[in-house]
Design brief:
Blueprint: H1 3-19, H2 30-39, E1 50-56, E2 61-67, E3 74-76, H3 79-86, H4 92-105, H5 112-119, E4 121-123, E5 130-133, E6 140-141, E7 143-147, H6 152-162, E8 172-175, E9 178-181, H7 184-197, E10 200-204, H8 205-210
Antiparallel strand pairs: 1-2, 2-3, 4-5, 5-6, 7-10, 8-9
Helix pairs in contact: 1-3, 2-3
This protein binds zinc ion.
């Protein structure tokens, strides 16, 4: 079997195991712990006391965290990069690129995209989550805001080209659970540019991933 297929099958398998654990419940799992200790790309975990699934602000989904021995700090670990590293196909450049792009997405929470989200969703009376309608399949529930018709990827690429910037040269820092651009002037310029060209549509999770929008 192709190594990439093997790898993604394993990522799915481990994610399935992890999804069975309730949020904030501490647990041990020998297979997962061995993977973390031996294959985390930057070897940031030295010992493991417990594992716990917790929501991460940036991704809004349950993420794996490690509580080390003699420590009260819970560090988040990405199972994808660990398994890719296990198969020898982990590419730190791709990870960096992904994080820098996340840094470009963070300021959008303060711009028109967030207003569009608030204007096109309403608060559910049951549990206070925001509900919207998918324009593709009419699903009503949790929805995401998709850049349409111009993709986020194209807007970002055009901006970088106009400013003569190379994505991988840009510095980012992790703050308040999110990746941010270090250069605040650039961030402001980007938000202004982005909001002047971007328009949106509402999509459910399923349609959003079938259009493969998040990776664009
Ligand atoms: Zn849909």
């Amino acid at each position: 079997m192709d190594i990439k297929i093997k790898c993604s099958t394993d990522i799915k398998r481990i994610r399935n195991i992890l999804s069975d654990y309730d949020e904030y419940m501490y647990f041990n799992n020998e297979e997962v712990e061995n993977l973390i200790l031996n294959y985390h790309p930057d070897k940031k975990i030295k010992s493991i006391n417990k594992l716990v699934m917790k929501c991460n602000k940036s991704y809004k989904t349950k993420c794996l965290h490690v509580l080390e021995k003699n420590s009260s700090l819970e560090k988040s670990v990405g199972i994808k990069e660990i398994i890719e590293n296990y198969y020898g196909i982990y590419d730190p450049k791709l990870k960096l690129e992904y994080n820098i792009k996340a840094g470009f997405r963070t300021p959008l929470y303060y711009g028109d995209k967030q207003s569009y989200y608030l204007n096109n969703t309403f608060k559910s009376e049951e549990d206070n989550t925001r509900i919207g309608k998918c324009v593709n399949c009419d699903y009503k529930g949790k929805i995401s805001i998709d850049h349409y018709p111009i993709s986020f990827k194209k807007i970002l690429n055009d901006f970088l080209e106009e400013e003569k910037l190379n994505l991988l040269d840009l510095k980012i820092k992790y703050e308040n659970g999110k990746w941010n651009l270090e250069n605040k002037e650039l961030e402001e310029l980007w938000l202004y540019y982005h909001d002047s060209v971007a328009s949106y549509r509402t999509l459910c999770k399923k349609c959003n991933s079938s259009f493969n929008c998040y990776s664009q």
